[in-house]
TrEMBL record:
The chain crosses the membrane at residues 22-40. Keywords: Membrane, TPR repeat, Transmembrane, Transmembrane helix. PROSITE patterns: TPR (PS50005). Coiled coil: none annotated. It holds the Pfam family Amidase. The gene is LOC100281793. It comes from the Eukaryota. The keyword Protein biosynthesis does not apply. TPR repeats lie at residues 498-531. InterPro entries: Amidase_dom, AS_sf, TPR-like_helical_dom_sf, TPR_rpt. This is Amidase domain-containing protein. Residues 78-231 form the Amidase domain.
């Protein structure tokens, strides 16, 4: 019976073990299970790294809860951060845990921390609960927030865009409303860049005013403790806890100073921004009318040691060259100090790093420069120059970065051009050690975050000003985005953005690039349409192209604005246009 049963079960063709068709079916089934398991595994990994629906938006690398001490009974004052939650980047030491510094090899080769970072302890003492540590770019190097090992936190503003780095997880956790605020270290924009990309407020304090004890250093002369928040009140309250009492209180008079050349490099008109801030401060006491400056040219003229690092440039391009030189010096200083801190570990462990991070780390450990003192001299000169410009009451206004967030996994992240755009403006505060606030300005024609920079030591003054003006500025931005605003006029000709455009047009004209010159003159006119010289210059370019009607129209407009340009036309514009000039000279 048993033998018969086995034969029947095999379809009369022998036992199961000896039937090849059964083995084929079984093999296919097993393979199918393995394929499905692999698909499921890859999908989970993709969700963790790419999707905004992943747990915690992919922002945390460690979860725990460090509760604050008990609130003392009345009449003791309530803790200033009571009820708030926060997280810290993966380079903050927490007693009983190993800080990963964004890299698994670092975590494997370091011991459990015996103490908690000073900043974390200060925040907990004032009522905040620390709920974990967040993902960061490896070793504090990185701009995009993409981490080879831990994945990329999902940017809540747009899941297709990078969140910015190096403190990507902290920014995403706040923007996704998982916590009330977060802390990270800002070395060369590590807090300000992700704040800009994720639509957050952030604060980078003056160098040295907050203890970095208990954090893993990237570059100790540039590292500061920064923080993110969605609400200016929370940003201010965190500052009240972390900043010393003596650091810059409120002043009687205040003034915004617009870096017109920086807005021009971003190719975004600052008219609506200026208009919004002007209208906002009109309702407040103590604000003087805004000033305008070419900050690059100012730095070039007032930081003498920087000229060694400036590329050869015409008078027109000196300011742009100075801004690039600032970021160059900042990166050189970072490389020098990172090498001093971590060269031995890198050469011994040979950690596995992402391609872009590996490039930066190799640049650091292979760094060789004899005159290191010049880097520190520039740092000191820049701080003094900004102090002389802003004094105790000035606030410099400029875009946070000179570029926009990339798509995730974009190859452009490996390009030097992208790095230049990210670092062009952040170096002003990073290298000088001045304090800086970043705020989102989503309602402008372009998504731009603005930065406000005050002199070193003016931290509480700057935070208080942002607290007073933030909601008013945002309201005015909404109005400015809907209304056409008048061009900024009556500005010093040497520092006006429109004047910078005119000079660019002149430079193109000299190179016989007539169309390019017309474009620059037209942009200058769009910013200041009452300057007769701009029309005269554009008329000359039109004439070179044989576009006589446009040339005559521009000359007509120039003469209506200022009859003194008749002499200019006679001297500088060829015979054909003199007919127009003579026409206006006739009674």
């Amino acid at each position: 019976m048993a033998s018969s049963s086995q034969s029947g079960g095999a379809g009369g063709g022998g036992t199961v073990a000896s039937n090849p068709r059964v083995w084929i079916v079984a093999s296919i089934a097993v393979a199918g299970v393995l394929v499905l398991a692999e698909v499921a595994r890859r999908r989970r990994r993709w969700l963790r790294g790419m999707s905004g629906t992943a747990p915690d938006a992919g922002s945390f690398c460690d979860r725990f809860e460090l509760h604050p001490p008990a609130q003392p009974p009345p009449p003791a004052a309530r803790h200033i951060l009571s009820g708030l939650t926060f997280a810290a980047s993966d380079n903050f030491e927490i007693e009983g845990y190993v800080a990963g510094f964004g890299n698994p090899d670092w975590k494997k080769t370091h011991e459990t921390a015996r103490h908690t970072a000073v900043a974390v302890t200060m925040l907990r003492k004032q009522g905040a609960t620390c709920v974990g540590r967040t993902i960061m770019d490896e070793l504090g190097f990185g701009v995009t927030g993409e981490n080879l090992h831990h994945g990329t936190p999902a940017n809540p503003v747009s899941s297709s865009l990078v969140p910015g780095g190096s403190c990507s997880g902290s920014a995403v956790a706040v923007a996704a409303q998982l916590i009330d605020f977060a802390i990270g270290t800002d070395t060369i924009g590590d807090v300000r860049i992700p704040a800009s990309f994720c639509g957050l407020l952030c604060f980078r304090p003056s160098y040295g005013v907050i203890s970095t004890l208990g954090t893993i250093a990237n570059s100790q002369s540039l590292d500061t403790i920064g923080w993110f928040a969605r609400d200016p009140c929370i940003l201010h309250r965190v500052g009240e806890v972390l900043l010393p009492a003596a650091v810059g209180g409120l002043k009687q008079t205040r003034q915004f100073v617009f870096a017109d050349d920086c807005f021009q490099l971003l190719k975004v008109s600052n008219q609506k921004t200026v208009h919004a801030i002007k209208n906002a401060v009109q309702a407040l006491r103590g604000y003087q009318p805004p000033k305008h400056i070419n900050i690059g040219q100012y730095i070039y003229s007032n930081v003498p040691s920087l000229k060694e690092f400036c590329e050869p440039a015409t008078k027109l391009e000196e300011g742009t060259s100075a801004l690039k030189a600032i970021s160059t010096v900042m990166l050189l200083l970072q490389r020098y100090e990172f090498k001093a801190n971590h060269e031995e570990w890198v050469n011994t462990v040979k950690p596995k790093l992402g391609l872009d991070i590996s490039t930066r780390v190799l640049q650091a450990v292979n760094f060789a420069r004899e005159n290191i003192k010049s880097l520190y001299a520039i740092r000191n000169e820049l701080r003094v120059a900004l102090k002389n410009l802003l004094k105790d009451t000035g606030i410099l206004v400029l875009p946070t970065t000179a570029g926009y967030p990339l798509k995730r996994n974009s190859k452009e992240r490996l390009s030097s051009g992208f790095e230049d755009r990210m670092y062009k403006f952040v170096g002003v505060a990073a290298l000088s050690g001045c304090c800086e606030v970043t705020i989102p300005m989503e309602n402008l024609d372009h998504h731009v975050s603005l930065s406000f920079v005050a002199a070193h030591g003016s931290d509480k003054f700057l935070l208080r000003n942002i607290l007073d003006t933030y909601s008013l500025i945002q309201d005015q931005v909404v109005l400015a985005s809907k209304l056409e605003t008048a061009p900024v006029t009556n500005v010093d000709v040497d520092v006006n953005a429109s004047e910078l455009l005119k000079e660019k047009g002149n430079s193109a004209f000299k190179r016989r690039q007539w169309i390019k010159a017309i474009e620059f003159y037209s942009e200058a006119i769009s910013l200041s349409d009452t300057n007769a010289t701009y029309y005269c210059n554009r008329a000359a370019a039109y004439l070179e192209l044989g576009r006589f009607k446009q040339a005559e129209a521009d000359c007509d407009r120039a003469l209506l604005l200022d009859r003194k340009v008749i002499d200019f036309c006679r001297c500088n514009i060829p015979v054909l246009l003199r007919v127009t000039c003579l026409k206006h000279c006739l009674p």
